[in-house]
Specification:
Length: 292
């Protein structure tokens, strides 16, 4: 029962319109520093745009839709998610247009367009499969923080395996759906951001190089995917295979990636292992760690 309460609290805090409030706050603070000085007026504009169009409006439609359908706050029924997702797409796109019209920071402008397109992708997938909106909603702003802060931004991805555990424990998603939401969000956000900055000729400088961003994402998703695959497999000695995969991953990142990518890999791997051991036998990762 205690684990369920913790999982519920995590799930509530990481609801996309809620988790984007602190993460977008950090993004807006970073973007508001110019030549070493903090631009308060710029921060207020950026924060208002992000707060209204990435949080308040999407949350308002979710609350309205939950009340209208008399359903749970996660809108667990896949078919009931279409309307909130469509409204979310519209809200993000209006935010993009407003940001473009007022001449707001081009990074935030591109990010709002990215949110719009990513939500459209989630909508298409949701028509066939209930991919996790929670992990997608987390990976989007974390991907943006990786672009802005590199390894420091990647540290926020420690929430990713925790959120996977939360959503699966609450029976809101399968393991595959929870993992896939994050994988999609990380890659689409980083790739789209670079694409939109190029297509619109946005004035955005000092971004983490695309190749480094890909390395950070690979370091973040490697262990969750390995545990996920082993959870679904019929291999008898899953623990032994997991240890082997982790060693291969460690050697791979040690040889080919920047050192801080290796550190991110180690941190995420330790987090996944601790979650696996804490979760108990009801969580598939636990059975991977305890198999022989």
């Amino acid at each position: 029962m205690e684990k369920l309460k913790i999982a519920k609290a995590i799930s509530t805090f990481t609801n996309p319109p809620i988790i984007c409030i602190p993460l977008f706050l950090i993004i807006c603070l970073i973007l508001s520093f110019e030549n070493g000085a903090f631009n308060l007026s710029k921060f207020i504009v950026l924060e208002l745009i992000s707060l209204i169009f990435a949080s308040i409006l999407p949350m308002a439609i979710i609350l309205y839709w939950v009340k209208k359908l008399d359903t749970d706050s996660d809108i667990s029924n896949r078919e009931d998610r279409f309307t909130p997702l469509i409204v979310g797409i519209i809200s993000y796109f209006i935010g993009f247009l407003v940001s473009l019209f007022v001449g707001a920071d081009h990074f935030l402008t591109a990010l709002l367009l990215c949110y719009c397109v990513n939500t459209g992708v989630v909508l298409l997938i949701t028509s066939k499969w209930k991919i996790s909106v929670h992990t997608t909603g987390l990976s989007g702003p974390v991907g943006a923080l990786i672009l802005l802060l590199g390894p420091i931004g990647a540290l926020f991805a420690i929430l990713y395996p925790i959120l996977i555990w939360s959503r699966v424990t609450l029976n809101k998603h399968t393991l595959a759906q929870a993992i896939a939401g994050g994988v999609q969000g990380f890659f689409l956000t980083v790739l789209e951001m670079y694409l939109y900055i190029y297509l619109f000729n946005f004035d955005v400088v000092a971004l983490t190089p695309l190749a480094d961003c890909i390395w950070y994402i690979l370091a973040i998703i490697f262990t969750p995917i390995a545990l996920g695959i082993l959870s679904y497999s019929d291999i008898s000695n899953k623990k032994g295979v997991f240890i082997l995969l982790e060693l291969i991953g460690f050697i791979f990142f040690l040889i080919f990636s920047p050192f801080d990518v290796l550190l991110i890999y180690i941190i995420i791997s330790i987090t996944c292992i601790l979650i696996s051991l804490y979760a108990g036998q009801d969580f598939a990762w636990f059975n991977v760690m305890k198999s022989s």
